[in-house]
Amino acid sequence: MKKSINKTICSALLAASALVVASSVANAAGFAVREQSAMGQGASFAGIAAGGSDLSSMFFNPATITQHEGLQFEGNAGLIIPYSKVKDGRNIVPVGAGTNSGNIGKFAVVPSTYASYQFNDNLFLGFTANSPFGLVTKGDANWAGSYYGIKSDVFMIQAGPVVGWKVNDMISVAAAVRGAYSTIELTTNGGGLGIVRLKGKDWAVNYSLGLTFKPTSSTTIGIGYNSQTDFKYDGSIKYGNVLFAPFLNTDITSKLTTPGTLNVGLRQKVGEDFTVLLGFEWADWSQLKELRLKSKTAIPVPAPTAFNWKDSYFYSIGGEYKVNDMMTARAGFAYEQTSVPDSTRAVRIPDADRYWLSIGGSVQVNDHMRATIGYTHIISKTGKVNLPLNPALGLPGLNANFKQHVDIISLSGTYKF
C-alpha cells in the first residue's frame, strides 16, 4: 500500500514539473506575476495567505499546506490580456519617429502547479512550480519611444519542495526551497547602430516561509514570505549595423534581483455560509536601483539603466459565499500602489497605480474533483513618461502617455486521490 502511495506521489510531482516545462514558452505579462491561483483571482487575492479550499495558496504562504488532507494535486492557468498604448508620443528633439507605440502588451499564459501529501497528523509534504516574475512588452520599432526600448522579455520559472508542520489545531508552520531559472532579452532602437539586442540567462535558488494561526474555529490568519532571487545573467549584447557590429558586439554579465514579498491574509467566517477576506502584500522593489552591464572584454557597454524604484503595496478585500454543498462564489476589490516612480517611468514598464475588480467561483464536480474560475479587470492610471533629452547618450527625450488596462481569466482543477 505504501509503495502504491509513493508511486502516486512521484507521478503527481512529475506531472507538475511537466506542466511548467511544457508551458515555459508562454511568458507572463508584467514584471511581478500574481496570477498563481484561480481561487485567489476570483477575490482579488484577498485572504489568500490565510488559505482556503485550493492548494494554490501555498505560493503565497506555504503553511496553508496543512489545511489539505490526504494526497492532492492542482493545476492552474491564467490568461493575461493586457492593453498599454501611446498615441501621443513625441521626442523633445524631433527625429522623425512616429507618435503611436501600438499595443505594447502581449497575451500570456501563466501556468502553476501544486501537490500535497499528508504524511501523518503533523507532517505535510508538497511541491510547487510557478512563474512568479516575467515581462513581455513590444512596441513599434519606429515610434518615438523605441530609442528607450522596443522589446522586453524577462522570463522566470521556479520549482521545489514544501515541508509543513501542524504544531496543533491553532498553529502551523512551513518552508519551501526552490530552484529558479531566468532568461532576459531586451531590444532598443540604436539609430545608426541598428537594433541593439541584449540577451542573458542564469540559475538561482530562493525560499519561502509561512505561518497560519487559527485563534477560533471561524478565524484564520496567515503570514507568508517569499525571498528575493539573485540572478547574475551571462549573455551578450549585439548591434544590428554590420559595419559597427564587429567593434561593439561583446559578451556581458548583469545582475538582477527580484524582490522579496510579504503576504498577510485573514479569513473570517460570518454565519454558516459567508466568509470575509482581507489581504495585504508588500514587495521590496526599493532594492532595484539600476540595471548595469559589465563587459567580459575591453569593448565598452551602454551606461546603466536607472530604476530607483520604491516598495509596492497591495490592499484587498473580498468575500466568499457557499451557495450550496457543490458551489462557492467569490468577489473582491484591490488597490495596488505601483513600485515605479514618475521620475524613472519608462517605455518598458510604464506601470501606474491600479484598481482590481474580480469575480469567481468553484464547483465540486464529484468527491475527487473541483473546478475553479476567476476573472479580474484591472483599471490602471495613465502611465506618464517624461524622459529628458540626453545628448551625451544620443537620446532625444520623450513625452508619452500610456493608456492601459488588463483582463485576466484563471482556471484551475484540483484532484484529491
How would you concisely characterize the structure shown here?
The protein is mainly beta. It has three helices and 21 strands.
Per CATH, the superfamily is Outer membrane protein transport protein (OMPP1/FadL/TodX)
Shape: elongated
Count every helix, treating DSSP H or I runs of 4 or more residues as helices.
Answer: 3
Considering DSSP H and I runs of 4 or more, what fraction of the residues is helical? Answer: under 10%
Total domain units = 1
According to CATH, the fold-level topology is Porin
How many individual β-strands?
Answer: 21
Compute the CA-based radius of gyration.
Answer: 23 Å
State which percent range the strand residues make up: over 45%
**Strand arrangement in the largest pleated sheet:** 1-2-3-5-6-7-8-11-12-16-17-18-19-21
First-last Cα distance: 14 Å
CATH architecture: Beta Barrel
**For this structure, what is the CATH class?**
Mainly Beta
Question: In words, what does this structure look like?
Answer:
This protein has one domain: Outer membrane protein transport protein (OMPP1/FadL/TodX) (Porin). Helices cover 7% and strands 53% of the residues. The chain is built from three helices and 21 strands. The strands form two sheets. The chain has a 14-stranded antiparallel barrel with strand order 1-2-3-5-6-7-8-11-12-16-17-18-19-21. It is elongated.
List the keywords.
Porin; single chain; two-stranded antiparallel ribbon; 417 residues; mainly beta; disordered N terminus
Write the layout of secondary structure elements.
Elements: H1 2-22, H2 38-41, E1 71-85, E2 108-118, E3 123-130, E4 134-138, E5 151-166, E6 171-189, E7 195-216, E8 219-226, E9 229-239, H3 245-248, E10 250-258, E11 261-270, E12 274-283, E13 290-291, E14 293-295, E15 305-306, E16 312-322, E17 327-337, E18 354-364, E19 369-380, E20 383-387, E21 398-416
